[in-house]
Amino acid sequence: MLQKITIASVYESLEHVMDPEIPVLSVIDLGMITGVELEEGGVHVKMIPTFAACPAVSYIQQQIKTVLEQELDIAVTVTVDKQAHWQSNRMTAAAKEKLQNFGIAPPQLLAGEMHAEILLAVPCPHCGSKETYLRSPFGSTLCRAIHFCKSCGQVFEQFKPLE
Amino acid sequence: MSYNAALTDLIIKMADDELIQGHRNSEWTGLGPVMEEDIAFSSMAQDKIGHAWALYRILHENLEGKDPDKFAFHRPEKDFKCSHLVEMPNEEYGFSLMRHFLFDHAEAIRYESLVDSSFEPFRILSKKVKGELKYHTLHANAWIMQLSQAGEESYQRMQEALNNTVALAAGIFEPSPEYENILIAERIYPGEAALYQRWLDRIYPILVKASLNLPDMKTITPAYGGRQAIHTPYLRPLLKEMGEVFNLDAEASW
User: Fold this and answer.
1) In the sheet that A104-105 helps form, which strands lie side by side, from edge to edge?
2) Does residue B207 sit within a domain?
């Protein structure tokens, strides 16, 4: 198959690589990709993990390679970009909407450093109420916190804001 | 070169603290007093071991260190430089919680100081780690406050936990007799004495708010020794257990 590979076509393919823990979000939605370079005979994708101890990093790297090689028919190398670090502000607005619809409250936009107060009154993704409280800053994965909604009486998860 | 030796020494101390505290945290998995706490200690275990891994990778990539997994799981006790605080068994939840409070504020202070380090890998790593640690200190502060205000027995147990952990925690800041000056002069980090003071300034107002009395730090003897590889009897069995699976077949690919 001979087709012209462009940076844009690589980014388009990357939208098909989904996060294994939140399957409605792609690596692009999450803001995990920090660079794409066309090299002789292949493509070099640079990415960053959300949390330092994220156990899915090598799986995601492998997924990027597999999907891109299949869709673009080109050799792909994926490396972790050490110069950049992931912040929740990297997540796109579209991603936040998808998260919300998936039942996980999105991270609030951070202005400066994260502080405890920002975790209060997180809107409930089920009923929209702000009558909520933080139940635990740790949840089912490293990137999630647990909240409780007093209006609808349900526990919900939030993708944590990270500075 | 003594610069590299000093840097290596500091990284091993930091990483070993993270690894061993991470292992201790993981011992709460399945045993937490409530489900949220089970999850919290398990998550913090994962974070700590991730931070240890990042530091061992810096050793490996920048300072000719060994492969991170081998270095973590295949090293004799005499080469570990963790503090006595992290070696201690979990005991009751109050002890674990107070250790977590004192340890994580010490970590937060340390990583905040590394944002200005002259050593680039520290600058990069610290930005990430200090953001993640906010959730650890937030968790610790919330529970210290909650349990100190939950009746007389609860209050007394928290005060007792503080009395039992504070000398151990002060041992985190054991300065290196041979490398401290060079690390400060090279602006790698501000030095243990400075971090110790910042740590006290950070924890004191929180303890006051919880009505807990910090013992007079001039009268306590910090639990030094860990940084010089003189360990408590608790480290050896921990290392044996931690490396048990890895050492079944050290060459296996996971």
Assistant:
1) A104-105, A154-159, A144-149, A132-136
2) yes
User: Cα dist. A120→A133, A158, B7, B184 in Å?
Assistant: 6, 11, 40, 40
Tell me what pLDDT residue A40 has: 87
How far away is chain A from the Cα of B50, in angstroms, using its nearest Cα? 4
Number of domains in chain B: 1
- Say if B40 falls within a structural domain: yes
Q: What is the block-wise mean pLDDT of chain B (254 residues), using blocks of 10 residues?
A: 93 98 97 93 96 96 94 95 98 96 98 98 96 96 95 97 98 97 98 98 97 96 98 97 89 80
Asked whether the beta carbons of residue A136 and residue B139 sit closer than 8 angstroms, the reply is yes
Residues A18 and A66 in one domain: yes
**Is residue A58 within 8 angstroms of chain B, CB to CB?**
no
- What is the identity of the amino acid at A36? V
A85 half-sphere exposure, CB direction, 13 A CA radius? 17
Does residue A154 fall inside a structural domain? yes
Q: Which domain holds residue A63?
A: 7-80
Integer Cα distance of B229 and A59 in angstroms: 37
| Tens digit of each residue's pLDDT (9 = 90 or more) over B85-114 | 999 999 999 999 999 999 999 999 999 999
Residues A161 and A109: their CA atoms lie apart, in Å, by: 7
Average pLDDT for A97-109: 95
pTM of structure: 0.93
**Which of A110, A119, A122, A136 is most worth mutating to test chain B (most B CB atoms within 10 A of its CB)?**
A136
- Residues B118-145 pLDDT 10s: 999 999 999 999 999 999 999 999 999 9
Q: Per the structure, how many domains does chain A have?
A: 2
CB pair distance less than 8 Å for A87 and B39: no
Please give the pLDDT value at position B1.
Answer: 61
Residue A2 predicted with pLDDT over 60: no
Give contacts of A86 with chain B, Cβ < 8 Å: 128
Q: What angle do CA A33, A34, A36 make, to 5 degrees?
A: 85
Q: Which residues span the domain enclosing B77?
A: 3-248
Dihedral, CA of residue A151, residue A152, residue A153 and residue A156, to nearest 10 = -110
Whether A23 contacts A56, CB under 8 Å: no
CATH number of the domain that B212 lies in? 1.20.1260.10
